[in-house]
Amino acid sequence: MATTIRINEEVKQLLKLRSAETGITQFDLANRYILKGLKEDDTPSNMMSISDIEAMLSFDKPEGDKNLEKLDGVLHSDVPTNSVELKKNSYR
Q: Alpha helix (H) ranges present in 1-92?
């Protein structure tokens, strides 16, 4: 699948130079660098990583959590609560 991305002129020139030095196409170099950057990126974000999702799902029980069910309704509020969502969110 082809797509277009905009990069600044300095990056474009560096990519062109590296391509000439190595004999590797700019396309292949750009893909290599983007993949490497994505794998090494540790920038905090609101997105969950694959390992975070796997960890959350490993704690998720189809039968529910009896402790949360005991607490459900103890506090009275006009805002409805969902104990399953509360449990899932506690692992984030």
A: 9-22, 26-40, 50-59, 66-71, 83-90
